[in-house]
């Protein structure tokens, strides 16, 4: 039987905290979402962002987790092939997959700032996961 890593609630909180710190450093109000590898919610935090950012952050995280790619890459694919809009996906920059020991473990979705800022905040969460000690 194959064994693989999985995010814990503590991991999700650590990842979200790194995102929150980056958002604060940039002075941005965003919503941060962390999901597991199946796209299921582990952590959600709204930092005084508009209510509409909640569903967008969840959609970005879920899309990135299930497709295992940054949502910005899907955004480019939709421009090239509009049929991708029929997918139940959020093709907007700001969602990044999370990998640990080269295994997919989930994703981060950020919404509320510019697409590039959302992704930069999500990248802080990816860096926090990479810095976690091995189990």
Helix-strand pattern:
HEEHHEEH
What does the overall shape look like? globular
Proportion of beta-strand residues: 15-25%
Strands ordered across the widest β-sheet: 2-1-4-3
Please report the distance between the alpha carbons of the first and last residues. Answer: 19 Å
Largest sheet, in brief, is:
4 strands, antiparallel
Report the strand count: 4
> What structural class results from the helix and strand content?
alpha+beta
Over the alpha carbons, how many angstroms does the gyration radius reach? 14 Å
* Rounded mean pLDDT score: 94
Q: State the helix count.
A: 4
Ranges with pLDDT <50 over ≥5 residues?
A: none
Helix content: 40-55%
Please characterize this protein's 3D structure.
The chain has helices at 9-26, 52-67, 71-80, 115-130, and strands at 31-36, 41-46, 95-100, 103-111. With 135 residues, the chain is an alpha+beta fold. The chain has a 4-stranded antiparallel beta sheet with strand order 2-1-4-3, with helices on both faces. Helix 1 (9-26) crosses helix 4 (115-130). It is globular and about 40 Å long. The two termini are 19 Å apart. The mean pLDDT is 94.
Strand and helix layout:
Blueprint lengths: L8 H18 L4 E6 L4 E6 L5 H16 L3 H10 L14 E6 L2 E9 L3 H16 L5
Q: Can you tag this structure with a few keywords?
A:
135 residues; alpha+beta
Short summary of the structure?
This protein has 135 residues and is α+β, with helices and mostly antiparallel strands.
């Amino acid at each position: 039987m194959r064994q693989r890593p999985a995010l814990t609630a503590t991991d999700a909180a650590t990842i979200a905290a790194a995102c929150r710190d980056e958002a604060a450093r940039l002075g941005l109000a965003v919503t941060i979402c962390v999901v597991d590898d199946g796209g299921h919610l582990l952590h959600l935090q709204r930092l005084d962002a508009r209510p509409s950012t909640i569903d967008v952050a969840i959609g970005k995280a879920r899309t990135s987790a299930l497709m295992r790619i940054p949502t910005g890459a899907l955004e480019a694919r939709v421009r090239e092939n509009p049929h991708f809009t029929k997918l139940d996906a959020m093709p907007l920059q700001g969602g990044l997959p999370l990998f640990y020991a080269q295994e997919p473990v989930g994703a981060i979705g950020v919404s509320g700032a510019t697409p590039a800022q959302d992704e930069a905040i999500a990248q802080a969460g990816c860096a926090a996961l990479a810095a976690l000690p091995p189990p």
